[in-house]
């Protein structure tokens, strides 16, 4: 891998003082990566329904959602602060606020630290200490283990880096029960095995970006066929793991396993289709790797909706 050539970030646009207030505010919002946080919250709230065996306390849901947004937003802002050098060289990230100068690096660092501290205090005060500790663990893991430790050093970066996002299910469960259990552990594993086949198709699409900055995402260091085979393996393990919430744990009615099986079947069809195209040497737009990426978001959303609905049928 080639080293990243140094290039100042945060100086590509007009200085922060010359930007309209609304644009500045939107820049800080962008630092939290709202679209990623949407997915994190989709995996948190349904687990609260499962933990409560029905509708949880609505104030608790609001407190957990707000705390989760602050926590994930702080981690994402710190991630952008650390990665601003390579973000400036990647087409996918070249318009991020710290690259364009909409937000200065110092402001981004202070913003990320502030959100992280506030979210921890928020969880400790309005939810419970266990959720606060889990939230803080997710922040520290994402910043120090993934961003600083794994991302630029190993092709397994996204595999283990995904742990930070998976912790959201523990936060949702502990917010209701103030303890952990086997059900959230299963859902943690589902998300753990979901993350690589979710992200690798996107990495295949933008691998030139990662190769340019020396980030060894799996599609950069391995061919499409190898990546697609890994996607298939993780996909089968993920689908099998999702069904263990029904058997042997027995924590659901008939509804959840039915939805999980149908969604899993569609997922495996897409995963095997991608592998077949990669094995045949298909490249470019005909590889259709983004079909699995988009389906993966639908899969996670509908699976966790089933998690929320199932308690009413159990």
TrEMBL record:
Give a yes or no for keyword Membrane in this entry.
yes
Q: Which segments cross the bilayer?
A: 36-52, 58-82, 103-123, 129-150, 157-176, 182-202, 231-248, 254-271, 292-313
- Write out the annotated subcellular location: Cell membrane
Write out the similarity annotation.
Belongs to the UbiA prenyltransferase family. Protoheme IX farnesyltransferase subfamily.
Note the Pfam families from the entry.
UbiA (PF01040)
Record's catalysed reaction(s): heme b + (2E,6E)-farnesyl diphosphate + H2O = Fe(II)-heme o + diphosphate
Gene3D superfamilies in UniProt:
UbiA prenyltransferase (1.10.357.140)
Identify the pathway.
Answer: Porphyrin-containing compound metabolism; heme O biosynthesis; heme O from protoheme: step 1/1
**Identification of the protein by name:** Protoheme IX farnesyltransferase
Q: Which InterPro entries match?
A: Protohaem_IX_farnesylTrfase, UbiA_prenyltransferase, UbiA_prenylTrfase_CS, UbiA_sf
- Is Cell membrane tagged as a keyword? yes
Sorted UniProt keywords: Cell membrane, Heme biosynthesis, Membrane, Transferase, Transmembrane, Transmembrane helix
The GO terms this record gives for MF are:
protoheme IX farnesyltransferase activity
Its Enzyme Commission number(s) read 2.5.1.141
Q: Which PANTHER family match?
A: 4-HYDROXYBENZOATE SOLANESYLTRANSFERASE, PROTOHEME IX FARNESYLTRANSFERASE, MITOCHONDRIAL
Q: What is noted besides the main data? A: Carbon 2 of the heme B porphyrin ring is defined according to the Fischer nomenclature.
Gene name of the encoded protein: ctaB
- HAMAP family referenced in this protein's UniProt entry, alphabetically: CyoE_CtaB
The lineage is:
Bacteria, Bacillati, Actinomycetota, Actinomycetes, Kitasatosporales
The UniProt function text for this chain reads: Converts heme B (protoheme IX) to heme O by substitution of the vinyl group on carbon 2 of heme B porphyrin ring with a hydroxyethyl farnesyl side group.
**Species annotation:** Streptomyces polygonati
Which membrane topology describes this protein? Answer: Multi-pass membrane protein
């Amino acid at each position: 891998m080639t080293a990243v050539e140094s290039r100042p970030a945060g100086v590509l646009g007009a200085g922060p003082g010359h930007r309209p207030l609304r644009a500045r505010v939107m820049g800080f919002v962008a630092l939290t990566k709202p679209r990623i946080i949407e997915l994190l919250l989709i995996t948190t709230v349904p687990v609260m329904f499962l933990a409560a065996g029905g509708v949880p306390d609505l104030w608790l849901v609001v407190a957990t959602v707000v705390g989760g947004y602050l926590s994930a937003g702080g981690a994402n802002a710190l991630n952008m602060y650390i990665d601003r050098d390579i973000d400036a060289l990647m087409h996918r990230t070249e318009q991020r606020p710290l690259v364009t100068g909409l937000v200065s690096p110092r402001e981004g660092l202070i913003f990320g630290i502030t959100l992280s501290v506030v979210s921890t205090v928020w969880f400790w005060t309005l939810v419970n200490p266990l959720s606060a500790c889990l939230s803080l663990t997710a922040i520290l893991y994402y910043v120090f283990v993934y961003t600083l430790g794994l991302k630029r050093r190993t092709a397994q970066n996204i595999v283990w880096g995904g742990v930070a996002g998976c912790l959201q299910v523990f936060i949702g469960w502990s917010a209701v029960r103030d303890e952990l259990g086997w059900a959230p552990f299963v859902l943690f594993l589902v998300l753990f095995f979901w993350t690589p086949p979710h992200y690798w198709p996107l990495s295949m699409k933008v691998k030139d970006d990662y190769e340019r900055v020396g980030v060894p995402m799996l599609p950069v260091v391995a061919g499409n066929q190898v990546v697609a085979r890994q996607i298939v393996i993780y996909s089968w393990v993920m689908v099998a793991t999702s069904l263990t919430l029904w058997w042997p744990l027995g924590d659901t009615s008939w509804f959840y396993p039915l939805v999980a099986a149908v969604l899993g079947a569609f997922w495996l069809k897409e995963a095997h289709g991608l592998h077949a195209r990669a094995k045949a040497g298909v490249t470019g737009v005909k590889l259709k790797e983004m079909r699995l990426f988009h389906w993966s978001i639908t899969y996670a959303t509908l699976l966790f909706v089933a998690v929320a609905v199932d308690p009413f049928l159990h």
